[in-house]
Design brief:
This protein has two domains: 51-239, Penicillin-binding protein 2a (Domain 2) (Alpha-Beta Complex); 243-274 and 305-585, DD-peptidase/beta-lactamase superfamily (Beta-lactamase, 3-Layer(aba) Sandwich). It starts with a helix and ends in a 7-residue tail after the last helix. Strand 11 and strand 12 form a beta hairpin. The model is unreliable at 41-48 and 588-592 (pLDDT under 50). Strands 2, 3, 4, 5, 10, 18 and 19 form a seven-stranded mixed sheet that branches. Helices cover 36% and strands 23% of the residues. The protein contains 20 helices and 23 strands. With 592 residues, it is of the alpha+beta class.
Length: 592
């Protein structure tokens, strides 16, 4: 071999050596990058391929009445979850779920698409599936690597429609709610309180979800649990409601529209809060039928008339008119006003409800017993609209009571300025007179009306109406008692309130508009019949508290589009409410 050939061979060998050296260096560099620089990242990816975090909902806290009767609880159920990473054939597997569950394929695909979680996180696509669906899916599960059947719970209301408006209901979280609550750990398909106590105390009832770290095989099936953080159940709630009194109220309402309330005036505890027509909150759990929804919508069944509806209060408003008259010294308890059956003002005859008969001479006590319109028309004229407005607001008509339920509305106090701006009409003296007997433009909610009478019973102190008596820690079982709150004081003299109470007591005596007798208990009450604008159709009210000198209970019954022509016909019904209370609690300790 000559020197030239040796030189060429040497150069080739050198080139090959350099090439292999560079390749080897590249491999070393890549290994260093993968194992050192990106080691933790790829270790995580490897773990993700074999590890799953499975989260399940915490049991929702129970809701019980004051005596321990269960009003809302959780019962076992099944959910269907999807892990997108494990889907071998997404459309095919989801089609099976759609066929078994009856949910449209497009809906399932949309849930998966919008879940907003990684491919290794399970997505709940169907909640509360039936036992039949669960069994069929369990049979197919080995062929569906990305689909799992998970044990869960669903809400149950054992007493059906009882206290439905108080309890509310739960449902699937909406997209709007999810956007607002995602930071709090909510995800698509989560169950959330939608109304009533379920919504008001969602943060207490919800609890904390469980988290379980499991190792899966190549098919995505769990083979062992590596770590588990159990769910923390939500707090149980004890309500002030007595389910026995609640049933009495709902039975009295029957198929009518209206509200019935029983409240302890000494602390604001609501022993019953009923609205009719009612609904069955259990029907929200698995989806409402079109027929149920149409029926409830037509009847206004979901509308809580006890706290969200406002009506002309009729003669129950006369306690405000009488108070205004006494406090402004327009009248005294000795002032006599003659009722000739009507009152002519501005050329118009205002007829007392007793027309064509007459009440004759009336002082304030007898005027309450007779519910004399002429008396209170005259008082309203003497007081004037400005003072009438002032005292209506003292009694809180334009304010919320602060009850711990969503959806409360206020009543309405009309003013001359409002009428001019809204109706482009001046305020007439007849408007003041109508307001004086709770007609015309003035409006009240049932919860405000019973609050007014409770504040009279308690000599001007108004306790905030409330439903939560206590919350119970799920672990320690320690109870946190609700501390009653004084919402307001009337700023009305005790003498005035005593005069009003004496008149209300006469209402229940022989000759009064609402004869009520429960043993030897002294009762104060007032009736009210409001015109609706439709001939022979009225809203009827009756409200009472007892005993007169040591009040323990206030009750209210109100019918919208009443089956009665006169509220006086409701006296036996109110007697049932009071009698049931005193049968249960006696006359010593009341509801405490």
């Amino acid at each position: 071999m000559d020197k030239l050939q040796q030189a060429h061979q040497t150069r080739r060998l050198l080139a090959v050596t350099v090439l292999f050296t560079l390749l080897f260096a590249g491999i070393i560099a890549r290994l260093y990058y993968l194992q050192v620089v990106k080691g933790s990242y790829y270790a995580g990816v490897a773990d993700d391929n074999r590890l799953r975090i499975i989260s399940t909902d915490a049991p929702r806290g129970e809701i019980r009445d004051r005596n321990g009767v269960v009003l809302a609880t959780d019962v076992p159920s099944f959910d269907i979850v999807v892990t997108t990473y494990d889907l071998k054939n997404p459309e095919e597997e989801l089609t099976v779920v759609a066929q078994l569950s009856g949910i449209k394929l497009a809906t399932l695909q949309d849930v998966v698409k919008k879940a907003g979680v990684g491919p290794y996180s399970p997505i709940t696509v169907a909640r509360n599936v039936s036992k039949d669906v669960a069994l069929k899916l369990a049979e197919r599960e080995p062929d569906l690597p990305g689909i799992q059947l998970v044990m869960s719970t669903k809400r149950s209301y054992p007493l059906g429609t009882l206290a439905a408006h108080v309890l509310g209901y739960t449902g699937e979280i909406s997209e709007t709610q999810l956007q607002a609550l995602r930071a709090d750990g909510y995800v698509m398909k989560d169950t959330i309180g939608k109304d009533g106590i379920e919504l008001q105390y969602e943060s207490l009832l919800r609890g904390e979800k469980s988290e379980k770290l499991v190792e899966v095989d190549a098919e995505g099936k769990a083979i062992r649990t590596l770590q588990e953080q159990p769910a923390v159940p939500g707090q149980s709630l004890v309500l002030t409601i007595d389910s026995r009194l609640q049933k009495t109220c709902e039975d009295l309402l029957g198929n009518n529209k209206g509200a019935a309330i029983m409240m302890d005036p000494r602390n604001g505890e609501l022993l019953a809060l009923a609205s009719a027509p009612a609904f069955d909150p259990n029907k929200f759990i698995s989806g409402i039928s079109d027929q149920d929804w149409k029926t409830w919508t037509a009847q206004g069944s979901l509308f809580d008339r006890a706290i969200s509806a406002s009506f002309p209060p009729a003669s129950t408003f006369k306690v405000i008119t009488g108070t205004a008259g006494l406090e402004t010294h327009s009248i005294t308890d000795r002032s006599i006003i003659y009722c000739g059956g009507g009152l002519t003002v501005g050329g118009r005859l205002f007829k007392c409800w007793i027309w064509p008969d007459a009440h004759g001479n009336e002082d304030i006590h007898k005027a309450y017993a007779d519910s004399c319109d002429v008396y209170f028309w005259t008082v309203a004229r003497l007081v004037g609209i400005e003072s009438m407005d002032t005292y209506a607001k003292k009694f809180g008509l334009d304010k919320l009571t602060g009850i711990d339920l969503p959806g409360e509305t206020t009543g309405f106090v009309p003013t001359p300025q409002w009428k001019l701006s809204k109706l482009n009409q001046p305020w007439y003296e007849g408007d003041t007179m109508n307001m004086g007997i709770g007609q015309g433009y003035v409006l009240e909610t049932p919860i405000r009306d019973i609050s007014i009478y409770s504040s009279i019973a308690m000599n001007g102190t108004l306790w905030r109406p409330h439903l939560l008596k206590a919350s119970v820690d799920p672990v320690t079982k320690a109870e946190t008692q609700t501390v009653p709150v004084v919402q307001d004081t009337l700023g009305v003299s005790t003498n005035t309130l005593n005069i009003v109470k004496k008149g209300l007591n006469l209402v229940t005596k022989t000759g009064g508009t609402a004869r009520i007798q429960v043993g030897n208990i002294e009762i104060c009450a007032k009736t009210g019949t409001a015109e609706t604008g439709t001939p022979n159709l009225y809203h009827t009210w009756m409200v009472a508290f007892a005993p007169m000198d040591n009040p323990q209970i206030a009750v209210l019954l109100m019918y919208e589009d009443s089956p009665y022509q006169r509220s006086t016909s409701m006296a036996p019904l109110l007697r049932k409410m009071l009698a049931h209370y005193f049968d249960l609690y006696g006359g010593k300790n009341g509801s405490n």
